[in-house]
Specification:
heterodimer; A: mainly alpha; disordered N terminus; B: mainly alpha; two-stranded antiparallel sheet; 71% helix; disordered C terminus
Chain lengths: 294, 324
């Protein structure tokens, strides 16, 4: 909602400024600044615009040397299911959804308890979380592969859910810890005095107040798992479930690359993620550095 | 007021977990209670700890063990290899090039990213109409899958009709199509990969620096202006020093991300021709297809570097003092 209304007051202010401002110089500076900023913004959007443009190119115009197709079509989006990208979309959804649920299930209690209480071993736990946040599966992919071969879990969706949850839990613990710490103890105590159990107070009072943090953790984990590549590439085989990133990457390796379908799939996979991410942008930067700068 | 809160807090202190359980009686009661109190955090943090141990710590151990094991061509365990995986790795002809390239990759990408982000953050920190929209545009490369971003760049660089080449041709910088195939050559391919790595790293870094810039109070700038400091002097003596914590953390996170970066090079050149555009991460992955023991040895080496970064990060973060 705010996303739609936000630019309006800004442009209104500019109009008001235009009509009766005696100062000319700052205005010119603002115009240059805004122009430069829009250009930078546009520059960072270009590859994604090209993604959309290629996806709406008809097959016959795929190799034309024009910047925009003369007969744009949505055909690639409509027959995306016949390319096998549809089932990959489902696989990615299952894995990202599963990892998100698992992260919230384990991170909420841990973040709540560490925010509210001092206990022996708390610093070890927090250190473990902070180190985990810095680790990435890429560096230990050989170990991850050996581990899941041992457990006979190659080509299993569960192995991907587990790995994605494990490597993204740290961020969720940090951001939720910050939110829980910011909620005054008194609110919770009042609820308990009023007859709530401790768990009841957590669900009825604390969780609603920490909802923005929970949403941030949810979206962040989902996107990270959705975009994950090297683990999915390593832990699945040709005959197993393939996530969208792996499927699209394999498309590129084929002899005759079906670029317009490939990019139609990429658009479906990318645009919603960018919009979701826009909702939490401010919190993510501070969340990623939360363990570090207090 | 404070007294009653303290009393309530004291009351609540003994509330969770331990109180609901039956207490052992007699002389051992004190000890039993202590054990119960020590166990009280378990229901809350055990699942998270278990997940970390299983998903993060186990592979580290497994990786170390694998680096000392011998495997046949089918991947079957052939007993201890002692250090032979490492000696084979260090005898690889490509290794020196790979290591040098990894250094160039990390230093160049992180330095360019931080420099560009400093400028962009400074710009986006100023008030101008439509700032929100401009900032949102910057989110795209951060939120989008790096795999997809890399593939789009590969497509835009294809020699016969890639958009970048079409633009260069139309602007008169290039005479014939199909005359340059950048991704097939070492220097040009690796340079474009550095470009894409910077492209996907700038958004997060800019946002992290923006958060740092917003934390600098206005009256510091006011004081500088009253003292007659110019723009450059203010930036150098006020902004940069106050931005240092954010800058340091952003740089360390970037070093980690860029060192671990896999999809860009994998998608754009696959580390080829040969291993000519491989970093140590790519080299590890490509070696994994032929010799898992040697790949494990490479990852142990990589892991050593990562531990150094983590230690620097822990020092920079002062997380221990944040506890008190």
């Amino acid at each position: 909602m705010t996303t739609v209304t936000a630019p309006a007051p800004a442009s209104a202010a500019r109009r008001a400024n235009k009509s009766g401002s005696p100062r000319r110089l700052p205005k010119l500076r603002t115009v240059c600044l805004a122009g430069g900023a829009y250009l930078i913004g546009l520059f960072f959007l270009l590859p994604y615009i090209e993604m959309v443009v290629t996806a709406v190119r008809p097959g016959s115009e795929l190799h034309d040397r024009n910047l925009l197709p003369s007969h744009p079509t949505l055909a690639s989006f409509l027959n995306i299911w016949s390319t096998g990208l549809g089932s990959s979309l489902a696989t990615s959804l299952e894995i990202a959804g599963g990892a998100t649920v698992l992260v919230l299930l384990v991170a909420i209690p841990a973040a709540y308890y560490t925010a509210r209480r001092n206990f022996r071993g708390k610093w070890i736990f927090l250190l473990l979380v902070l180190i985990t946040q810095m680790f990435q599966p890429t560096a230990m992919i050989v170990g991850i592969y050996q581990q899941f071969v041992q457990f006979n879990m190659i080509d299993s969706i569960w192995s991907l859910i587990l790995v994605n949850a494990g490597f993204n839990m740290a961020f969720a613990v940090w951001i939720l810890n910050a939110y829980f710490s910011a909620i005054p103890k008194e609110i919770e105590e009042a609820a308990i005095v009023d007859g709530c159990s401790r768990i009841g107070a957590m669900f009825r009072v604390i969780m609603p107040l920490a909802a923005p943090g929970i949403v941030t953790a949810l979206i962040f984990t989902f996107i990270a798992a959705w975009n994950e590549f090297i683990v999915a590439l390593t832990l699945t085989t040709q005959s197993g479930p393939r996530t969208l990133t792996v499927k699209i990457s394999n498309f590129v390796g084929e002899y005759n690359v079906d670029w317009q379908h490939l990019f139609a799939g990429s658009v479906i996979a990318t645009i919603p993620v960018i919009i979701l991410f826009a909702l939490i942008e401010g919190k993510v930067a501070s969340g990623l550095t939360a363990g570090a700068v207090k | 007021m404070t007294q009653s809160t303290q009393a309530q807090a004291g009351l609540l202190e003994s509330a969770p977990g331990s109180d609901d359980r039956p207490r052992p009686s007699g002389p051992r009661r004190g000890a039993g209670r202590r054990v119960l109190r020590a166990l009280a955090p378990l229901p809350w943090i055990a699942p998270a700890t278990a997940l970390i141990l299983f998903v993060v710590i186990w592979p580290v151990v497994s990786m170390f063990l694998t680096s000392r094991q011998k495997y046949d061509s089918m991947g079957f365990d052939q007993g201890s290899a002692d250090w032979s995986n490492f000696s084979r790795l260090f005898a690889e002809q490509d290794l020196p090039g790979v290591l040098i390239r990894t250094g160039v990759w990390v230093v160049t990408v992180v330095a360019l990213t931080v420099l560009i982000s400093l400028g962009v953050a400074q710009m986006f920190n100023k008030e101008f109409p439509g700032r929100r929209v401009a900032r949102w545009a910057l989110i795209a490369p951060w939120a989008a899958s790096v795999v997809m971003t890399s593939i789009v760049f590969k497509w835009m660089l294809n020699p016969s009709n890639g958009t970048i080449l079409v633009l260069l041709h139309d602007l008169g910088f290039m005479k014939n199509y199909n005359s340059v195939n950048w991704l097939a050559s070492q220097t040009a391919g690796f340079s474009w990969e550095i470009f894409v790595a910077v492209f996907v790293s700038v958004p997060f870094t800019t946002y992290a620096l923006l958060a740092g810039l917003q934390a600098i109070p206005d009256d510091v700038y006011e004081a500088a202006r009253l003292d007659g400091a110019g723009v450059v002097r203010t930036y150098w003596s006020i902004t940069l020093p106050l931005l240092r914590p954010a800058l340091l953390v952003a740089a360390l996170i970037n070093i980690m991300n860029v060192f671990n970066s896999f999809p860009i090079i994998y998608e754009m050149t696959g580390g080829g021709p040969g291993n000519e555009t491989s970093t140590s991460t790519l080299f590890m992955f490509n070696t994994q297809q032929t010799s898992i023991g040697e790949a494990a040895a490479m990852s142990v080496v990589n892991f050593g570097f990562i531990i150094v970064i983590v230690l620097l990060f822990l020092r920079a973060s002062k997380w221990n003092s944040a506890e008190d």
